[in-house]
Amino acid sequence: MMKSFDPEQFSAIGDTLPDALLILQPNGVIEALNRAARKLFPRAQIGAHLENSVQEDSDAVGRLLKTWRRAATPTPGTLHARAEQPGMQNPPLRCEGCAVAQNGVLVLHCRPREQATKPFAILNEEIKKLQHANHELRHDREYLAQRVEERTRTIRESERRLHGILEALAEAVICFSHEGTVLSSNPAADTLFGYPTNAMIGVQMQTLLPGAWPEGSSSQPLPKRNMELNAQHRSGMTFPVEIKIRELILQDETVFTALISDISERKAHLLHLKYQAEHDVLTGLYNRRYFQSALDRLVDEGGTLNDAALLFIDLDNFKFVNDQYGHSAGDRVLKEISDLLQRHTRNSDLLARLGGDEFALLISDARAAEVDAIAERIRTSLETYTFTCSEGYADIGCSIGIADLHEPLAVNLVLGRAEFACRRAKNRGRNAIWRYTDTDEEAAKAGTQEMGWLNRIRRALRDDLFVLHIQPILGTDTNDLAASEVLIRLADQGDSLVMPNAFLPAAERFGLMPEIDRWVVRHALRRISHETGALSINLSGTTLEHGGIADYVAQQCQEHDVATERLVFEVTETAAIANLAGTAMELGKLQALGCRTALDDFGAGMSSFAYLRELPVDWVKIDGRFVRDLAQNSVDLAMVKAMHEIAHTLGKHTVAEFVENQDTLVILKKLGINFVQGYHLGRPMPLDRSTCLMT
């Protein structure tokens, strides 16, 4: 079949283009393709149908050809190049096709989906070079005249087709001289820069891309071939672009082509991502990561440290708002206080929300007296701030710690000093300010040790490094096992264990007891799911105050198929009295599930008897300090007897702890104590090895 397009002519021009271009007859037969297309479609051949080169079936290819025949502008579609080996799957290609009105052929521009558009050149001058070469190759005048006429027709056709290809492309393409004068531009470039058709010819590239050339002259050599800079619209408006420039030699003359992409949306998206990475979503303040980076920079500078200080601001009554009115109310408080703090912050200072209800303010270029004044204004403004909502109101207030930056310090140490000073302010009764001084160093070291426990506890929770032991509680009459008390240990180096009195105080201070109690419940129930016998598990006052432990116990019992009647939950008298109403409510919920409850260390407080009837407990565990020496101490004996009689009067069973010898056990039996526990009866042992104690 006679081709309407010279493939050799097209290859001479098209092979300089980095993107794949194919020229198709309307029915899909390939007339010409450049080098990039041969790489992208290994099976493509001139004269063969497009469907032989792709994985799509003939119906899918037919639908795309039909779409492209009707398209006056580039219309995208997806094709997969046919793999060279059976069973292989090539990645999808984005193919933009349209019909060229002058001769009805289809122009197909393809590239991998994940790659950015690559530049290509306008090569009209190459046509003259090819024409000149044809003249030299013809020896016979008549034959030469005939060939010249044929070649001229081919060249004109190629010009029209190449012009159609450029117009069909969605990317802006500009051809310019070595002096920076625009020689040609496609419609996309005209639209991008706001020029009418052909009006850009003769314009200096320095006008379009002011920052691309040194010393403000586009006649200077190009410093870069790929760059991002601001382009200038004909209206004077600037916008960011990505430009890729390629050099061509046509008839010993150097020209350049530029592929230009508007990257305004991409830049805006990057700015949005940068803002999100540096700011707190709720308040719009800088976040902890950005604040620490800024503090790092200030510490690295070193020269301005004498006039810099860090304020650590912690809200005093925020937890009450969250618990009483809900988290949406808490979010409102944080937003309103953020606005309030910004009103008391200088433009040169840096305010950030570190997380939760903690804020930090980095003050530079301010003497100590000015720092004190700023801190006092913040404290006063929060002292007078009252949060109001339909359910009620709450006064907030804050505690502020100040750390002066007199010397280069690690960022964590600077923050740690300010946070320590804030805790000192809270310990003074809250709504106060405390400046970190040298006298705080020893106290801070103790706090550092406590922070070490905090990290170990968190790691133990994450990696299951706690170890459970149990100690038997026996009936005094039958010597039968009534329950086994669960005791927690922390795995240390080697086979050694850390006792709870070493790490639980830190856990209480940092609010980790609810997590620890839930860890114990979860792992203890998992261990006894296939055993018999009862477990007695200790709960902290913090866990009962937070609430929800009864629901968690019910869920774990169902998950591990453990009857709630097998569980006893203990709370110390001191913890129960500290939050009497909340403790009574949670213990009542546990009893409603079928669990038994116990009051531990009974007798430790002066008002023990008064509170006993207020608490829904089944067992009363008498403080071991009264039990240990009762065989030799008549006062202890009288106290234990009185506690036992009061407990029985209220319908509760008694448990005596610290039973360490036979004489004590005999006396307790005579008193009628229901259950006993101590080293004389059984020492704690690992739960995993205690099957005999569970039967």
TrEMBL record:
<dbReference type="InterPro" id="IPR043128">
    <property type="entry name" value="Rev_trsase/Diguanyl_cyclase"/>
</dbReference>
<feature type="domain" description="PAS">
    <location>
        <begin position="158"/>
        <end position="202"/>
    </location>
</feature>
<dbReference type="InterPro" id="IPR000160">
    <property type="entry name" value="GGDEF_dom"/>
</dbReference>
<dbReference type="InterPro" id="IPR001633">
    <property type="entry name" value="EAL_dom"/>
</dbReference>
<dbReference type="Pfam" id="PF13426">
    <property type="entry name" value="PAS_9"/>
</dbReference>
<dbReference type="InterPro" id="IPR029787">
    <property type="entry name" value="Nucleotide_cyclase"/>
</dbReference>
<protein>
    <recommendedName>
        <fullName>Diguanylate cyclase</fullName>
    </recommendedName>
</protein>
<feature type="domain" description="GGDEF">
    <location>
        <begin position="306"/>
        <end position="438"/>
    </location>
</feature>
<feature type="domain" description="EAL">
    <location>
        <begin position="450"/>
        <end position="695"/>
    </location>
</feature>
<dbReference type="InterPro" id="IPR000014">
    <property type="entry name" value="PAS"/>
</dbReference>
<dbReference type="InterPro" id="IPR035965">
    <property type="entry name" value="PAS-like_dom_sf"/>
</dbReference>
<dbReference type="InterPro" id="IPR052155">
    <property type="entry name" value="Biofilm_reg_signaling"/>
</dbReference>
<dbReference type="Pfam" id="PF00563">
    <property type="entry name" value="EAL"/>
</dbReference>
<dbReference type="InterPro" id="IPR035919">
    <property type="entry name" value="EAL_sf"/>
</dbReference>
<dbReference type="Pfam" id="PF00990">
    <property type="entry name" value="GGDEF"/>
</dbReference>
<dbReference type="GO" id="GO:0003824">
    <property type="term" value="F:catalytic activity"/>
</dbReference>
